[in-house]
């Protein structure tokens, strides 16, 4: 489920940080669903930098946290 490179939207992320901070920073920078969706699939662990995030996005193929929220409602 890898999407576009999220690094341009993560310049303001306060690394190391978790998925919630990545989503906040990307949304504040104007990222669309094509970026936020794949970020939402990341495990809730700490990421050291944008390169680590990009590697994780490309490797992750799990359901988006948005998809799993729909399943539980």
Quick take:
The chain has four helices and no strands.
What's the helix and strand layout?
Blueprint (H helix, E strand, L loop, with lengths): L18 H10 L4 H8 L9 H10 L5 H8 L1
Helix pairs in contact: 1-2
Structure description:
The protein is globular. The chain has one domain (7-67). With 73 residues, the protein is mainly α. The protein has helices at 19-28, 33-40, 50-59, 65-72.
**Helix/strand order:** HHHH
Integer-rounded radius of gyration? 11 Å
Unreliable runs: 64-73
Q: What is the percentage of strand-forming residues? A: under 5%
Give the termini separation. Answer: 23 Å
Question: How many domain regions?
Answer: 1
Average pLDDT confidence is: 85
Number of strands: 0
Helical segment tally?
A: 4
Helix-and-strand structural type: mainly alpha
What is the share of helical residues? 40-55%
Main beta sheet, described? none
What is the general shape? globular
Protein name: DUF2795 domain-containing protein
Pfam family, one: DUF2795
Organism: Amycolatopsis coloradensis
């Amino acid at each position: 489920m890898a999407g576009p490179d999220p690094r341009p939207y993560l310049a303001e992320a306060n690394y190391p940080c978790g998925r919630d901070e990545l989503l906040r920073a990307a949304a504040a920078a104007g990222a669309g669903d094509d970026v936020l969706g794949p970020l939402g699939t990341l495990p809730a662990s700490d990421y050291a930098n944008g390169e680590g995030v990009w590697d994780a996005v490309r490797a992750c193929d799990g359901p988006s946290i948005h998809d799993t929220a729909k399943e539980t409602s």
